[in-house]
Amino acid sequence: MTSGIGGSTAAKELAGIQADTSSVQPISTAERRARVEKAARLMQDNAVDALILPAGSSLYYFTGLRWYPSERLTAAILTPDARLIYVCPGFEESKLRETLGAGADIRLWQEEEDPCLLIKTCLQDLHCKSDVVALDEAAPFFVFDGLRNALPLARIINASTITAECRMHKSAAELAIMQAVKNITLEVQKKAARILHEGISSFEVAQFIDQAHRAYGGSASTFCIVSFGAATAMPHGPDGEQFLREGDMVLIDTGCKLHAYNSDITRSYVFGKPSQRQRDIWELEKTAQAAAFDAAQTGVPCEQVDVAARKVLAAAGFGPDYQLPGLPHRTGHGIGLDIHEWTYLVKGNQRPLAAGMCFSNEPMICIEGEFGIRLEDHFYMTEQGPRWFTGQSHAVDAPFGDH
Fold it and tell me: pTM of the prediction?
């Protein structure tokens, strides 16, 4: 039996959890203000007259306001002089002020009114031009449609040149939160491996993972993929329930949130004794992951990280490109307030790697009809190069380094 796999129960593993996230602090008001000021400078550099942030991750990033997206528009307007104005339904004002405080500039619209016309009025009141309006890339179409009707002479552009440029470079405070949440999920992965036994349901494992994430002080699982056997070759797993058998490859990919920042870690190993085929492919996956990490040097184009991983796989006869058997998706994605966010380790991305960028590293090997292996860890960039949040799996016989 692979070391660290099986031999325990869900009850025992949950009972042994001691949560302590007290050393990690949420993002401060001062840091959020610095983010707003940076965005305003970028607006000036790009001749953007207004930045519109409806409900979503970027609204939270800049303002601290967690808001649910709906057909009723609630949004922040940022001007090039770093002023924030909020528009929301009249009956929601008290709820906004719980977060924003009495001093926030909140403009209200009533149920029969058009909130995009209120945005137009706000810009006029501030003597703010509306030639170029940047709209958050995740905004629903109805917001875009409303703005182009309310501001027919405006050029509405994708705000990612501002929002992504801010969000992809993490601060020390963000890195600390992300380290803590990734530590939580790695510990949950270890515990999930220990509860495995022949016949266990993938749904039962996923339920345990959710409970463990919360017991450690994280959120409920933001997602959870638990796959056994041939289903591990499906990158995002099957929809149906599976039951574990001796000799199966196991793939568990999961994450949670802490102070709104995400973890996302995958572990692959064998329940029982690995076959030579499983052992060889597992080692190849680890080698490709290491090659991607080594290629991630400051100033190097993002795509070269993807190239490095594929070069290892191609030399072993996999691929090329996205062909199966091989790696059917990009090598990595940015991560932060969203599980997938700018920027990406993918062919064609010429953006240079820079300090503060955070990525998954997951050059999965899919062999349809047999099994798949994904080892996913994350790293962040420093001026001196990449640093792991969580280091690579130890060995196929001891994925968590138990011996």
Answer: 0.96
